[in-house]
UniProtKB/TrEMBL annotation:
It comes from Kitasatospora kifunensis. Homohexamer; trimer of dimers. Belongs to the acetyltransferase Eis family. This is Putative acetyltransferase. It comes from the Bacteria. Residues 1-145 form the N-acetyltransferase domain. The keyword Acyltransferase applies. One of its GO terms (molecular function) is aminoglycoside N-acetyltransferase activity. GO terms for biological process: aminoglycoside antibiotic catabolic process. InterPro entries: Acetyltransf_17, Acetyltransferase_Eis, Acyl_CoA_acyltransferase, Eis_dom, GNAT_dom, NAcTrfase_Eis, SCP2_sterol-bd_dom_sf.
Amino acid sequence: MEIRPTTDQDLEVFVDTVFAAFGRFRESPAEGDGFLWSAYEMDRNLLAVTAEGRPIGTAGAYSFELTLPGETVVPVTGVTGVGVLPSHRRQGVLSAMMRRQLTELRARGEFLSVLLASEAVIYRRFGYGPATYTERLTVPRHRAAFARPRGTGDAPATGSDVGSVELLRRAECGEILEEVYDRYRRAQPGALSRPHRWWASGAGQPPVSTAPRYVAVHRDADGVPDGYASYSMGESETLTVDETIATDDAAYTALARFALGHDLVSQVVFKHFPPDHPLRWQLADFNAGQLSNHTDWLWVRLLDIPRALTARGWFTDGELVLDVDDPFLGEHGRYLLTVRDGKADCVPTDREPDLSLDVSDLGSVYLGGTAVSTLVRAGHIRAHREGAAALADALFRAERAPHCLHWF
């Protein structure tokens, strides 16, 4: 078996191999816009082939930016298109491709890698851990009344809005969507960039794709777009919101009111609803909003632990010794993490550890979306002294829960 990089001439065979690995047929040519592979970076993809040259496995990579706690934006690789033909599974092909990919990412000077896991049990063994989560909120239209805000005194109510909502079609507002999303993702921990070529080629799911959608665009008091909700009407009078993007709570509330106030609707479904969002509390009937489909989304893999830990922002001072095992790459390291005034220093140490953990668990807690104490209680992380988990919880927390909407 040989693992080789691909070129533009390999696009057809790469896409065909991905589809075959998942037991599917594609109905469109690889060339052309409107499909996920139209955003492929063929100089970053890998193809596993037999001695006879037959393709048997694929692994791709996108170039993104990831927003870390503290609104730090860093380059990150988005792993995609990973698959092995059923005839060649459990023969080491996947492990060989993942090891080759991680080695090449390090050679490029990258310190973080992310992916969306089709099967959770596969990618943890390669050092990835679930780091952001998403869910679905369903609200019956007849129970969608908003409560009167309390506790605001004489000050303007939280979520009060002096802006406006304009209804457009997806084909009319591509530039607005791109600009508003970019402003949003730079301030949201866990959010990925959407490079211009994604919007230009319609690569991905709505509203990135050019599939017909209505888009409610929110504008602030000065008329500047600061939020949008992409939606469609389905069966049983269900209005489904693909995603709601807003740069502040007031814009999000206004867009939610718009969707929940739509005529001839029996229920509104908000996809990719942030787990910590206050919308349910804003409804007069707290139980009107039903949460479902809670699932992992973005998985994170640290390739250079000191660089990764010093790149993000921190909100509590403290000191921890982390003993980190990386069995897939055959590495083990012990690091002294020292945080002062929002900045971290991370250096190798021989001091006794406060916490022992796998690199995949470090990926899970890295963005602040998974508490260290949760993984201690689960038996994944070992705390060597009383209070270590509580300190780690305080250190690794983010200014708000990380959330990722981008599908790749």
